[in-house]
Write a structure and sequence with these properties.
EC 2.3.2.27, ubiquitin protein ligase activity, transferase, Znf_RING/FYVE/PHD, 3-stranded antiparallel beta sheet, Serine Threonine Protein Phosphatase 5, Tetratricopeptide repeat, repeat, mainly alpha
Length: about 290
């Protein structure tokens, strides 16, 4: 009886969810959980409501419970990864999203493409945070280096000015001649240190430019969506595609290679591991390309 009542609350929760009344849906799923606390679906349904409400700590709690009941819960790992991304716990988020994707491919779930997007987004946000920290450190270091250069400049200028003041008792003509020489030395010092500052700034500017967006190599791009690949697979024709987009092609258009037009089914595909590794390395160094 309690199982039936729990299902009744789940159905009501689904109705509220379809109307975007997430608070009411959450209450119904909570009632279902109270009646049947071992049903993974109730936790993942409630977690989805919390995700919509941006209550990420609640999402994490429900997803962890779901995974403790069923370690192979695709939705549990998927939403846990999303919530952890929002909490900026990127390494753990990426780990759970990767698990979700692996399970999704194994179980042939329909939203594996969405999991890839969440994975790439988490990787990009991790890279952006690391870049932000790196830029801050570089900015502070540049400021420090420029400070050292200007301090050294001031020392050199003071030495020259002190030598100028030591000639205060000489005759006017000699003083004027010496003053001209002193000014030339001062100008030379300023010019030399200005050049050093310019060179330092150019080095840092070049470093910043080298990290900026560039053209992604064509062989990293899927030939169906033209997006960067995450899980490249090879067809019998020797052509590489993104797995999820090729599966979608099979489902909507037919079981053939989009370019060679030769017959091809999911069982004929095999992973392009070398390319996958190269893309992962590229994204680790160029996180901006994750949503290319």
């Amino acid at each position: 009886m309690s199982v039936e009542r729990a299902e009744s609350h789940k159905v009501k929760g689904n109705t509220y969810f379809s109307k975007k009344d997430y608070d009411s849906a959450t209450r119904e799923y909570s009632e279902a959980i109270n009646l049947n606390p071992r049903n993974v679906v109730y936790y993942t349904n409630r977690a989805l409501c919390y995700l919509r409400l941006k209550k990420y700590d609640n999402v994490i709690s429900d997803c962890k419970t779901a995974i403790s009941i069923d370690a192979n819960s695709v939705k549990g790992h998927y939403m846990l990864g999303q919530a952890l991304t929002e909490k900026a716990e990127f390494d753990l988020a990426i780990s759970h999203l990767q698990t979700a994707y692996d399970l999704a491919i194994k179980d042939k779930v329909t939203f594996s493409g969405e999991i890839i997007q969440a994975l790439l987004s988490a990787k990009k946000r991790k890279w952006e945070l690391e870049e932000q920290r790196l830029r801050k450190n570089e900015s502070e270091f540049l400021k420090y280096i420029k400070g050292l250069i200007n301090t050294e400049r001031e020392k050199q200028l003071q030495k020259v000015n002190q030598s100028k003041n030591s000639f205060g008792s000489t005759i006017s003509k000699l003083v004027n001649l010496h003053s001209t020489e002193i000014q030339d030395k001062l100008d030379q010092i300023n010019k030399s240190y200005d050049e050093k500052l310019s060179q330092i700034e150019q080095v840092f500017a070049q470093s910043e430019e080298n990290r900026g967006p560039k053209e992604v190599p064509d062989y990293f791009l899927d030939k169906i969506s033209f997006n960067i690949m995450y899980d490249p697979v090879i067809t019998p024709s020797g052509i590489t595609y993104e797995r999820t987009h090729l599966k979608e092609h099979f489902k909507k258009i037919g079981h053939f290679d989009p370019l060679s037009r030769l017959e091809c089914r999911e069982a004929d595909l095999y992973p392009n591991l070398a390319l996958k590794e190269a893309i992962e390395d590229y994204l680790n160094k160029n996180g901006w390309a994750a949503d290319y």
